């Protein structure tokens, strides 16, 4: 059976409607408009109440990002040539399937609230991501230069002298993008107590100090928006060295003797440690926690995925000058940059203060953040299209020219973000929403590491399933597109 955008659309609508039966969208905020007006007032009158402390938090946000991304990129580059091996690929899949916050919550039991926790929480999942992406870049390197080497040249020599130099431009570009992601992750780690900008944002919001919270948010935007302009590759070693020095100044709280051994012991399921019955333990974790958590995570992610696709389809034209005009495209680009640069967890936290406790803030945050990313990429791809001279302008150009030609790319980008949205939906449980993250955090707070580990395994399994489904759908769409192109060529040849 052929697979088209229409089939994907019908599947998306059907699954999103089904997911509506399993989510709580009843916001219970006391007066959302009053809260929203106070937040807007704070944004218009930001208060840099403690500039020294905020600058220190900004510096540590950068330091965690640089060190974590450098760690992940270095180890990922070492693993990339061996990524096809199962013993390398599967650990990398497991590492990147867990969000940085989950890694941080686990590491808190070993390294405490220390700089090492933040660096590893970013570096470990990024290792899995870098290994996969760098492996693809090395595989796609131009083979003509490699063919010029002698046949006796070793694989290591071919890697170092041909494939790696040919892949360096792509590796640099992707590493810079990951640094932007690392800044978002670093800021969000403040919500679990690390001294980054997220720590101050949460503190100010909980005290209803919206002007001070606005100042923190503006500092974060000042760091991340011009990132591609102030990061120069020749200065990266200096940035990393300064980051290591800055993190070395942060107090390293001792965890006490035997912390690692206690953690490893607690990883063993309780029935195996105390020789108890396995059935009640499995029922408690799998039936009472994993099952409702997985249903909530899948439902939330599916509705957010649907919202992201709609948002992307409707908003990417606002950055196309032929549709929105040059001034409108500039304004639209600014809006999308802010939405995609703001961490989804941070955005959900803010919306939770406005709308009250429900799944609605998380759905809106995930849809806006991921929809803005897809829209930004589609807008950039539209600039590469060859447009005929008599093409229309405005909405007619979007409806009859632009979107039909980008439909394949649109669905490919949406399917790629599907796995990421599921991964992000799981961590929304830390905000009190009953996804898998809610039960993971509850068990970690009770020092039931074995239960948390099983729940994290369920999270990894769901992520792997969504990733497999996404890749299968993308392959089928690509195959269908190839058949369509070949059919068009055959018809033209016969004519």
Automatic annotation (TrEMBL):
- Keywords of this entry: Cell membrane, Membrane, Transmembrane, Transmembrane helix, Transport
Q: Which InterPro entries match?
A: MetI-like_sf (IPR035906)
Q: How does it sit in the membrane?
A: Multi-pass membrane protein
UniProt-listed SUPFAM superfamilies: MetI-like
Q: Is the keyword Cell membrane assigned to this protein?
A: yes
Annotated TM spans: 57-80, 101-123, 207-227, 234-252, 290-316, 323-339, 345-368, 420-440, 452-470
Per the record, the major location class is: membrane
Instruction: Please state what the protein is called.
Output: Putative membrane protein
Organism classification:
Bacteria, Pseudomonadati, Pseudomonadota, Alphaproteobacteria, Rhodobacterales
């Amino acid at each position: 059976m052929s697979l088209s955008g229409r089939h994907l659309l019908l599947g998306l609508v059907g699954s999103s409607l089904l997911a509506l039966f399993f989510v709580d969208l009843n916001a219970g905020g006391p007066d959302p408009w009053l809260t929203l007006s106070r937040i807007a007032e704070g944004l218009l009158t930001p208060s840099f109440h403690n500039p020294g402390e905020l600058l220190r938090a900004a510096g540590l946000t950068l330091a965690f990002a640089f060190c974590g991304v450098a760690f992940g990129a270095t180890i990922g580059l070492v693993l990339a040539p061996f990524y096809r091996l199962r013993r390398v690929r599967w650990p990398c899949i497991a590492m990147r399937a867990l969000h940085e916050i989950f890694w941080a919550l686990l590491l808190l039991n070993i390294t405490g609230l220390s700089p090492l926790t933040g660096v590893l929480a970013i570096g470990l999942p990024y290792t899995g991501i870098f290994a996969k992406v760098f492996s693809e870049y090395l595989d796609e390197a131009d083979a003509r230069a490699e063919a010029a080497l002698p046949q006796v040249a070793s694989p290591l020599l071919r890697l170092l002298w041909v494939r790696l130099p040919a892949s360096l431009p792509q590796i640099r570009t992707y590493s810079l993008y990951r640094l932007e992601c690392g800044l978002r992750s670093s800021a969000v780690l403040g919500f679990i107590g690390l001294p980054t900008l997220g720590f101050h944002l949460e503190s100010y919001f909980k005290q209803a100090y919206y002007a001070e919270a606005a100042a923190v948010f503006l500092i974060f935007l000042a760091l991340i928006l011009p990132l591609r302009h102030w990061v120069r590759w020749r200065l990266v070693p200096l940035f990393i060295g300064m980051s290591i020095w800055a993190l070395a100044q942060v107090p390293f709280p001792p965890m006490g003797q035997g912390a690692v051994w206690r953690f490893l012991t607690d990883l063993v399921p309780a029935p195996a440690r105390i020789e108890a019955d396995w059935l009640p333990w499995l029922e408690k974790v799998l039936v009472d926690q994993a099952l409702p958590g997985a249903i909530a995570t899948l439902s939330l992610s599916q509705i957010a995925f649907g919202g992201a696709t709609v948002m992307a389809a409707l908003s990417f034209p606002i950055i196309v000058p032929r549709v929105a005009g040059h001034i409108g495209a500039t304004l639209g680009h600014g809006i999308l940059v802010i939405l995609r640069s703001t961490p989804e967890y941070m955005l959900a936290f803010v919306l939770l203060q406005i709308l009250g406790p429900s799944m609605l803030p998380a759905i809106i945050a995930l849809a806006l953040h991921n929809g803005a990313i897809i829209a930004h990429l589609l807008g950039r791809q539209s600039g590469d299209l060859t447009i005929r001279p008599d093409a229309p302008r405005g909405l007619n150009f979007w409806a009859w020219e632009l979107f039909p030609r980008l439909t394949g790319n649109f669905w490919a980008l949406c399917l790629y973000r599907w796995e990421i949205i599921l991964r992000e939906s799981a961590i929304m449980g830390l905000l009190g929403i009953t996804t898998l993250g809610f039960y993971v955090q509850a068990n970690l707070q009770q020092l039931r590491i074995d239960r948390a580990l099983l729940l994290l395994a369920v999270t990894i399994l769901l992520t792997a399933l969504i990733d497999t489904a996404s890749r299968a759908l993308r392959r089928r769409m690509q195959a269908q597109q190839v058949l369509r192109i070949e059919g068009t060529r055959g018809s033209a040849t016969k004519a």
